[in-house]
Amino acid sequence: MEDWLPVYLPIANLSVNGLLIVALGGLTGILSGLFGVGGGFLTTPLLIFYGIPPTVAAASAATQVTGASVSGVFAHSRRGGVDYRMGAVMVGGGVFGAMIGALLFRFFQSIGQIDVVINILYVVMLGTIGSLMLREALEAIKPDMIKKRSAPKRRHHPLVAALPMRWRFYRSGLYISPLAPLILGVLVGILTMLMGVGGGFILVPAMLYILGMSGNVVVGTSLFQILFVTMVTTMTHALTTKAVDIVLAGLLLLGSVMGAQFGTQIALKARPEILRLILAAIVLVVAARMLFGLGVQPDEIYTVAPL
């Protein structure tokens, strides 16, 4: 199979099986269509497993997330599912966070520890997110959990209520300080820069349970923020870290666009709680594999650094 569509990645300085990279992008696209996540949080670890340097994997994966978010924003915008005022505040925070992330990226790169930092961040993040999703999925599958329960009242976190300078976000049905979504945007921007993820799997729960946003605008507003922040992240990586491999990003984007269509069709026929259980298992397996990799001497002891 290594002879199928051999492709040279100039930044990674590596020859790869082009069809396999497209298939990897297709896999993350299917996950995106199935579970409503960008797939970036799995793209980077899978690329690392394949042998792509973590720096190049993280920087190039952000480009794929950008492309995957465009159609989602348009779809949600047509049905009024985007709070543009809230999204603009989070985009501003995300751009600032991306700048901070770029400084951190260059610092860890300069001391030769960026690969280790990326791996540790993924182990912590995937382990936490996967455990929470697994617990939620198992509770949803239990027979005694199927009984009708009154939905908890939506409200923002007390810390958010204590912040000054309140604005009205009419589409979200909120009257809160813009500092809360601004800070949230900064944190997601830093993660996007360091890890090549869109941050939707963190942003969506935070928008629901911390900001208290209306559920019908959460996904669309999250995609709006992710779209612009990943664009800035990709340009920042290209200009500063020089770790974006455009060939790799193009192959991933091609696969993800096709895979998302299949994932959407499957999602229409499958039980949501079963899908969440499967995704949680995948996330935990990837986290365990990365944790194992941190304790084993790598095949290549050097990292990629710009000239």
From TrEMBL:
Subcellular location per the Swiss-Prot or TrEMBL entry: Cell membrane; Membrane
Keyword Heme assigned: no
GO CC annotation terms, alphabetical: plasma membrane
TM segment ranges: 87-108, 120-138, 174-202, 208-231, 243-262, 274-292
InterPro entries with a match to the protein in the record: TM_pro_TauE-like, TSUP/Inactive_protease-like
Top-level taxon in the UniProt lineage: Bacteria
Topology class, membrane: Multi-pass membrane protein
Keywords: Cell membrane, Membrane, Transmembrane, Transmembrane helix
Coiled coil, from the record: none
Family: Belongs to the 4-toluene sulfonate uptake permease (TSUP) (TC 2.A.102) family.
Cited PANTHER family: MEMBRANE TRANSPORTER PROTEIN MJ0441-RELATED, MEMBRANE TRANSPORTER PROTEIN YTNM-RELATED
Protein name: Probable membrane transporter protein
Organism encoding this protein: Altererythrobacter xiamenensis
